[in-house]
């Protein structure tokens, strides 16, 4: 067991933050003419630095006049007026080493950016809600899907974390899955391990569970269009760019489908007849045959009756040839659907779950006329239903190939902590790793030791509390190392490690958010370990700009 001290390291900062804040702020106030200048050139050129007392070359005269407190005075003025939005033009990022409990508290600051693994808030955890809705408490549902050795099970959510705004990338696969995650987010691969997106590339395979519905509107919107607005399924499919059969399946699943409902031409089914007249005509025909009525042309040849001869000539002229390809009388060019479905018949096992039995031919782009080998796969009945109805109905996982990874801007990102031992969850059909670290700590440690952060323990007679904490950490370390040594996966063994485990997180925020962070986290009411980290950050920020942070004590 190894005890380490918490630490804070500055990674990056806006160049000349105070001067940047002054320039952007004076644009708001239209007071660029009030910037004080170098003494050497009689106020014609701006000073090169805002550090009081130092001499730097002037931008115009290149002299070495003493700099004036132009930026400092300006920043003090805007802070006194409460105009802190100007501070957002300067930012700083730190690498923070602390325990896991403190990192979970840090990521609650919504306007900062973090370098841990995270996923876009629009990622769907089920058919009905997203991860952002779960974090905001808009759904009481706390049970989502996890993957357990290739089988999809129901699992419970322990915690939901907001991790600020970060650049996200759109990941699309061969079967049509797509999701938006950061470069640090982890996907499950074929061998059951997890790999970060930055280590994956186009052509690699990740584990998935079905595909999202091609109809993106909610069930409530579909019900309103069908029942209130009176739109037919064909019209809904045309408006929302979804396949007609997808609309039918959703209407059947909701139990609201009615044959011929909202049809704009109902007469085409009855040709002027009513239900009663059609039934009356049917009974008349049946009674006629019961009384000895016969088909008029039964057993007649074309030489015996002119009408039969006319019918025979028409059949010979328009005879249907049931051959394949151009020899088929209905051929219009291209490959027929029936011929396409007969391809790849040499495949005897499902290409997704590797099960044997009855197989179907599935078109990846759901275009039945596109019968190229690349667009066809042979799958079992269960996988076929899952691909058409949505990933949430799947019960097993299978591999899918990444087709593209493209930047998708900056978004609010989140992550989950799932109940062990299966630390993963299904989002947008992908098997994602949750926020607990997937790391073999025995490999990262020194001589088999695991690093912990010691909390502020009370001083009592007999030194009982500190010793109890050390004993608990030692037992957790021994349990983890023993589980790893006997072959248990590290992501499962790590469930025995406590919150005092050393963790590292990268955090970047603008100066305005850092001021908010310090006000909250340096308060006497804040957690002692969080106060310790906040004081370290404040000391580093004071080295960057005294005027921006000196009033926070």
Structure explained in plain terms:
Among the domains are: 117-212 and 397-433, Endonuclease - Pi-scei, Chain A, domain 1 (Beta Complex); 335-389, no CATH class; 441-500, no CATH class. 31% of the residues lie in helices and 21% in strands. 29% of the residues are buried. The chain has 553 residues and is α+β, with helices and mostly antiparallel strands. A hairpin with a 2-residue loop joins β15 and β16. Residues 37-56 and 58-68 have low confidence and may be disordered. It contains 18 helices and 18 strands. It is elongated. Strands 5, 6, 7, 8, 11 and 14 form a 6-stranded antiparallel β-sheet that branches. A 4-stranded antiparallel β-sheet has the order 2-3-18-4. Strands 1-17 form a two-stranded parallel ribbon. The protein starts with a strand and ends with a helix.
CATH architectural name of the domain at 117-212 and 397-433: Beta Complex
Largest sheet: 6 strands, antiparallel
Average pLDDT score: 77
Radius of gyration: 35 Å
Distance between the termini: 36 Å
Task: Give the count of helical stretches.
Answer: 18
Multimerization status: single chain
Q: Number of DSSP strands?
A: 18
CATH topology of the domain at 117-212 and 397-433: Endonuclease - Pi-scei, Chain A, domain 1
Structural class: alpha+beta
3D shape: elongated
**CATH H-tier superfamily of the domain at 117-212 and 397-433:** Hedgehog/Intein (Hint) domain
Strand content: 15-25%
The level 1 CATH classification of the domain at 117-212 and 397-433 is: Mainly Beta
Low-confidence stretches: 37-56, 58-68
Proportion of helical residues: 25-40%
């Amino acid at each position: 067991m190894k005890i380490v001290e918490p630490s804070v390291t500055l990674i990056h900062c806006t160049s000349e933050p105070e001067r940047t804040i002054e320039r952007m702020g004076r644009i708001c106030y239209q007071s660029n003419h009030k910037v004080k200048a170098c003494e050497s050139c009689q106020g014609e050129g701006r000073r090169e630095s805002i550090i009081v007392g130092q001499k730097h070359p002037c931008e115009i005269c290149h002299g070495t006049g003493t700099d004036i407190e132009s930026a400092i005075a300006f920043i003090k003025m805007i802070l006194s007026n409460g105009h802190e939005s100007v501070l957002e033009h300067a930012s700083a990022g730190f690498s923070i080493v602390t325990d896991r409990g403190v990192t979970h508290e840090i990521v609650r600051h919504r306007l900062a950016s973090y370098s841990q693994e995270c996923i876009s808030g629009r990622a769907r955890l089920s058919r009905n809600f997203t991860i952002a809705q779960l974090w905001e408490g808009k759904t009481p549902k706390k049970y989502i899907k996890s993957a357990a050795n290739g089988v999809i099970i129901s699992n419970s959510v322990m915690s939901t974390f907001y991790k600020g705004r970060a650049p996200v990338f759109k990941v699309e696969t061969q079967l049509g899955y797509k999701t938006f995650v950061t470069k640090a987010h982890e996907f499950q691969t074929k061998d059951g391990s997890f790999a970060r997106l930055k280590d994956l590339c186009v052509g690699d395979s990740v584990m998935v569970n079905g595909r999202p519905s091609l109809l993106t509107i909610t069930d409530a919107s579909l019900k309103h269009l069908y029942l209130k607005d009176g739109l037919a399924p064909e019209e809904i499919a045309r408006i929302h760019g979804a396949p007609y059969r997808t609309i039918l399946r959703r209407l059947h699943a909701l139990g609201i489908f009615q044959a011929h409902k909202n049809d704009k031409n109902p007469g085409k089914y009855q040709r002027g007849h009513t239900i009663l007249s059609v039934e009356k005509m049917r009974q008349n025909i049946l009674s006629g045959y019961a009384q000895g009525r016969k088909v008029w042309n039964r057993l007649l040849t074309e030489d015996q009756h002119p009408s039969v001869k006319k019918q025979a000539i028409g059949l010979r002229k328009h005879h249907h040839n049931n051959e394949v390809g151009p020899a088929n009388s209905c051929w219009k060019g291209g490959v027929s659907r029936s011929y396409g479905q007969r391809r790849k018949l040499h495949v005897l096992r499902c290409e997704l779950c590797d099960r044997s039995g009855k197989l179907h031919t599935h078109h990846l782009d759901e275009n039945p006329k596109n019968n190229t080998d690349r667009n066809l796969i042979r799958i079992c009945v269960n996988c076929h239903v899952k691909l058409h109805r949505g990933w949430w109905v799947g019960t097993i996982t299978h591999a899918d190939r990444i087709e593209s990874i493209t930047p998708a801007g900056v978004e609010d990102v989140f992550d989950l902590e799932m109940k062990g031992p299966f630390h993963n969850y299904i989002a947008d059909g992908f098997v994602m790793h949750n926020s607990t670290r997937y790391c073999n700590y025995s490999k990262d440690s020194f001589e088999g030791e695991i690093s912990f952060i010691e909390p502020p323990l009370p001083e009592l007679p007999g030194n009982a509390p500190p010793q109890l904490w050390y004993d608990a950490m030692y037992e957790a370390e021994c349990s983890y190392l023993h589980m790893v040594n006997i072959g248990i996966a590290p992501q499962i063994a790590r469930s025995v490690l406590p919150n005092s485990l050393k963790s590292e997180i990268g955090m970047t925020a603008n100066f305005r958010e850092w001021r908010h962070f310090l006000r909250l986290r340096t308060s006497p009411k804040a957690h002692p370990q969080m106060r310790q980290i906040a004081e370290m950050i404040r000391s580093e920020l004071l080295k960057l700009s005294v005027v921006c942070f000196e009033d926070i004590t």
